[in-house]
Design the sequence.
DNA sequence: TTGTGTTTTACGACCTCC
DNA sequence: GGAGGTCGTAAAACACAA
């Protein structure tokens, strides 16, 4: 049967038929499944229906051709107006209700697949964002360590030169925490080291104190 | 052969639009 | 009110491993 004749020019884009030979099915297992079924059933019961051993007539499997034509029509237009439904039903030897149900189920499958793809895309973006965050946190730690070493070096040089802190200039001073490494970057009590201002390079002291993740102190 | 998981067909309930 | 939509679900059809 000629495809153009089957659907009418108003319902089917001939591009789909042109691609029909290589049209990719949704998945390989489905194609394999249909092939095996066709081989077993010998292509149906002669009325365009495939029923296994007198199965429930209310649950009739569509033939490959019927399914394929419905698929092509679906790709043309996902909504099913009355005219097209009646036309497809007549041409395929189906009940219009079956055509409607097939389209409903097909839309559901399409939506499910779309959601799956969207989920995968968002998950990929999320994972990438997490990775980037980790890199940034590592960079912060590296810079903080560098700052601490520099401050210690300054303190050492001052001590060597006999300069002692007098607490005069607190504005813009860099906080260097004494004691254990655990308290080095905490917001706990800190000594002020006047005369050294890293604020122009590193920003306000508070910013430095806020960037360290909690797990660093665990 | 059978148990199990997946896909397809069908239906009912409910919603929206004309 | 009727037609067609989505959503959730049942059950048949099917594939496949054990």
Sequence:
């Amino acid at each position: 049967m000629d495809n153009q004749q089957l659907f009418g020019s108003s319902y089917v884009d001939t591009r789909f038929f042109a691609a029909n030979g290589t049209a990719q099915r949704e998945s390989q297992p489905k194609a394999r499944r249909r092939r095996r079924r066709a081989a077993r059933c010998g292509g149906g019961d002669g009325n365009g229906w495939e029923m296994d051993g007198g199965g429930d007539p209310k649950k009739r499997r569509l033939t490959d051709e019927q399914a394929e034509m419905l698929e092509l029509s679906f790709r043309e237009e996902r909504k099913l107006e009355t005219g097209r439904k009646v036309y497809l039903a007549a041409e395929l030897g189906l009940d219009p209700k079956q055509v409607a149900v097939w389209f409903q189920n097909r839309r559901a499958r399409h939506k499910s697949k779309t959601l799956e793809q969207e989920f995968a895309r968002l998950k990929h973006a999320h994972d990438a964002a997490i990775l980037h965050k980790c890199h940034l946190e590592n960079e912060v730690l590296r810079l903080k360590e560098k700052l601490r070493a520099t401050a210690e070096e300054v303190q050492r040089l001052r001590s060597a030169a006999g300069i002692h802190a007098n607490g005069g200039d607190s504005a813009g001073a860099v906080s260097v925490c004494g004691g254990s490494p655990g308290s080095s970057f905490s917001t706990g009590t800190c000594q002020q080291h006047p005369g050294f201002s890293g604020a122009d390079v590193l920003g306000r002291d508070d910013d430095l104190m806020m960037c360290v993740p909690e797990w660093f102190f665990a």
The CA atoms of residues 67 and 102 of chain A lie 9 Å apart.
